[in-house]
Structure formats: structure tokens, C-alpha cells
TrEMBL record:
GO terms for molecular function: oligosaccharide binding. Residues 107-159 form the Fibrinogen C-terminal domain. Keywords: Disulfide bond, Signal. It holds the Pfam family PAN_1. One of its GO terms (cellular component) is extracellular space. It comes from the Eukaryota. Residues 1-23 form the signal peptide. This is Apple domain-containing protein. Residues 25-101 form the Apple domain. It comes from Desmophyllum pertusum. SUPFAM superfamilies: Fibrinogen C-terminal domain-like, Hairpin loop containing domain-like. PANTHER family: INTELECTIN, INTELECTIN-1A-RELATED.
Length: 159
């Protein structure tokens, strides 16, 4: 058996290994799926674990990953299927994995939201409190109170 004959077997083993990892996690992930249109980096990897470690190391930018077992490639995504279910496609030998270590939008200066409504739409479990905002992406982020119980009201620059 040459290396090319073994490739399909290795791809299936890699996907099955990833499936076992996903089964142990409380995340919105799945086999046979991929998020399209949101990859900010794509590169070859030896296995799912290497792809996962790259995503984890690139927090908070990496929100999810696609591992393509048939091509041994990894896509790091800057969004999730929770936010963009319309971009999820079926890919038989791929694994979609949503990062459980992702930093919540608005919780830190370097992941400031644009508005309180923006934070609430991206972080469905957001509660009333103080959040980091950067309304146009070019200014210095600031902290303000967001009333999430009324749909994300507030968020004005403090005087």
C-alpha cells in the first residue's frame, strides 16, 4: 500500500478523532459541516488537534474553525454558525468546531463592540452591565453601561 492509498483512511480516522473530541465538549460544533465566508486564515495541518491548537492560540480573533480531513487543511474563522447559520454548508469529511475559549464581545478593550445592540446580537446571554464600545472602529474604546433587558439601550459616551 502506498501513501496515496492510505490517505482516505487517514482522513476518516482524523474526522472520527475530531468527533470524539467534540462529543466531550459543550459547544455548537458538528461533523460534516463547515462555516463558509468567514475564514481569515487557511493552512495545511497534520490533524484536527493541530488545527484546534492554532485556533486556541489565536484567541480572541478565532471564533471557530473548519477542519477539512480530506485535504488536511484548517480554516480559522472570525465568526460562528450561531451568528451566521446561513453560511453553514454540508461537507462530508469536514468538522466545524466553535471555540469554547472565545472572549465575549465587549468584555475587554481589544474586543469592544460597536454598540450595545451589537453586543446583544452577538452575545445572546449578555446582561445589564458595563461594556467596552468603539462605535466606529477607529476611536479609543470606552466603557459604558448597556441596558440589555430593553434590547441593548444605552451605550452613550460618558461626559
Amino acid at each position: 500500500m502506498n501513501i496515496f492509498d492510505a490517505f482516505p483512511v487517514l482522513a476518516v480516522v482524523a474526522v472520527l478523532t475530531a468527533t470524539n473530541v467534540i462529543a466531550d465538549c459543550d459547544v455548537k460544533s458538528g461533523t460534516g459541516l463547515a462555516l463558509t465566508g468567514h475564514a481569515y486564515s487557511s493552512f495545511p495541518v497534520r490533524d484536527f488537534e493541530q488545527c484546534y491548537e492554532r485556533c486556541k492560540a489565536d484567541e480572541p480573533k478565532c471564533h471557530s474553525l473548519n477542519y477539512h480531513g480530506d485535504h488536511m487543511r484548517c480554516d480559522l474563522n472570525n465568526s460562528t454558525r450561531t451568528l451566521h447559520p446561513e453560511f453553514v454548508v454540508e461537507k462530508p469529511l469536514s468538522v466545524y468546531f466553535e471555540s469554547r475559549y472565545r472572549v465575549s464581545v465587549g468584555s475587554q478593550r481589544f474586543v469592544a463592540g460597536r454598540t450595545c445592540e451589537d453586543i446583544l446580537s452577538r452575545e445572546h446571554s449578555a446582561v445589564d452591565g458595563f461594556y467596552w464600545l468603539n462605535s466606529n472602529g477607529n476611536e479609543d474604546p470606552y466603557v459604558t453601561f448597556c441596558n440589555m433587558t430593553n434590547g441593548g439601550g444605552g451605550g452613550h459616551l460618558p461626559s
